[in-house]
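Interim report, section 4.2 (structural modelling).
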Amino acid sequence: MLKAKLAASAALITIFSSTSVLAADEDIKALRAEVQNMKQAYEKRIAELESKINKIEKEKSLAKSVAPILATPATARRDVKNNSFNPSIGVILNAQYNAFSSDTGDIAGFAVGHEGERPRENFSVDHTELNFSANIDDKFFGSTTAAIAQHEGETEVELEEAFIMTLPGAGLPDGISIKAGRAFWTLGYLNEHHSHTDDFADRPLPYRVFLNEAFNDDGAEISYVLPTDLYLAIGGGLFSGNDFPFGENSGSDIGAWSAFARVGGDISHDQSWRLGGYMLSGEANGSRFSNEDTVSFTGDTNIYAADLRYTLAPTGNARNQEILLQAEYFWRDEKGIYEDTNAATGPVNFDNSSSGWYTQAIYKFDQQWRVGARYSQLDASNVPAGLVGSALDSGGHNPKAYSAMLDWANSEFSRVRLQYNREELSHGQNDNQIMLQYIMSLGAHGAHKY
Amino acid sequence: MQQLLRIFIVLLLCATPTAVQAKVNVFACEPEWAALAKEVGGAKVKTFAATHAKQDPHYIRARPSLIAKIRRADLVICSGSGLEIGWLPILLQKAKLGVQPGAIGYLMATNIVPILEKPAVVDRSMGDVHPEGNPHVHLNPNNILLVAKELSIRLASIDTPNAGFYQRQLSSFNTQWQQNIKTWESNASVLKGKTVVVHHRAFSYLLNWLGMNAVASLEPKPGIPPTTSHLEGLLQQLKASPADIIIRTPYEPSGASKWLSEKTGTPNLVLPYTIGGDAESRNLFTLFNRSVNLLKGTNHD
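Predicted structure of the assembly:
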């Protein structure tokens, strides 16, 4: 439009100037030059305007292509963060029937916390879990998990996790995230996982004695995934020091800290692995009570752990067949004062170490069926003279446990498991155990963690 | 301890990126999207496929290698609609801001194309149904075109200096692809109205495009493996009204479809489903060629 008008006016001017017979040749030349100048100037403007319009149109089309994604109401679709509900809600129904051949399940040579004890016999619905999680906003993700458990005839609600975690939108450098609150912290393989995702109905011996099933103190953890082709992650945390293996920290001092490094990758298309090294260090300022409050420990604890996990899908498709191998090793160093009130030892100075490990193999031979075997073992410390005859005196016995399991999963959301354990945890105490368990999840779709 | 610390520092230094990567890193959840990124991005992109044709893309673990890959991705392209719900959210927590949901580098095919089989009511007793509808969208070639257009726009805005390049790549792909669609459609016209038994509803978009009808699935409910009682029921159903073909993906177990095929005499067929599903299906063009030819091969009347 603009261009046409201009061309017309330029033409008019040219016509007028050419019809003016009286005008001198020079005048005509000057006029022509002027018109030419005007024409050029306008053409330049027009070109500029046109490019501007083009640019705006381009931006508009780009906005259009992105807008529908943003504009879709949250209720109309479940986006990949699993937010069909905001927050997403998950309930784990977990029940177990246990039968044991031995009356006692003491672990010789170890101070064992309540969770680490042998589970209850008969039917129980311990570890029924309720989870809420969602992105809080563009910067934070939040999650809380409460477990409902039975303890000495009373139903207790236990806050397993209540944490926030930074999202990539939080503005931290790429690969860094911070998690704060109460969580199953990064330590070995199983610690991060809720027990309902375990491959066996109970935790292996090292978890029972060293971590009282799991370390979920209050604190904060930072982790960094390096920008490398091989998976490399490092991190560390600071904790209040109130959870087993520490205890009763008071005051504002940080009670415990941790550090970890992990490396992992794939071997060809169908195998993958991860190896980790961990350290957890802290103190029990007050006292850490165990063995039904008869044994107390005050002092420093260092735990060093390593884990290895390897997965193989023999046909390529892990859904049809899969082999999972997993092993963890724990080494604990304790320095402080032990006291066993049952054995009336009085306070005894203690500076020694103990260790434990387990290894397990799971074979999924069909879309729904898996078999598994596990072996765990502990090596107790040598006790000083003052503790001979106490719960900490293993009498030279290294506790060990053999497990075998068979489970069937109808879908991703339900699993039924039969497990047999033979535990030789104290001298002459051979315990044959049968565990029958179901784990069902309703609500949020579970995560396929490695 | 000090030794360890030293090793850490050395590792850290080694890991610091030495030069700015010129290529756009594309993380594709499935091989078909990796192939599309190669068509549109050409040599300007570096693609990585998180899964291969022998894997069921729903049942993937967020394994370490995937975290390492997504950590550096500039664009994530997946099917979406819950297909990757078990693993993609965990991976994205470690990824860059530019590939988070809603960002320009987060491209879910199911957000671009028309969706089939969107259930009106969702209940897990119906199996692992996706409330957003069927996520296996790539087997309708028209969907590929829609996603290709979107992908070229996204690539152009991530890598602005090469915007013109992506535009040209798209238009040449577009022309070629549309010609091929015509050929496939005329080749497959005899397939119209044929009845099919599927293993899982992984082929709905292909069948819908070719005008074929899925009359039954071997899975009693999506995500639930075939049961004897369900197969027995299918056998009766097929005896009463026979189907033309039984199809499955390369990653689904063969037992059920072979059994039903033997009992009913209905040919059973493994379709490539995605890139690498068989030796011939090396790219998107050969994938569709091969699928149409295989389906036609069973057509003897």
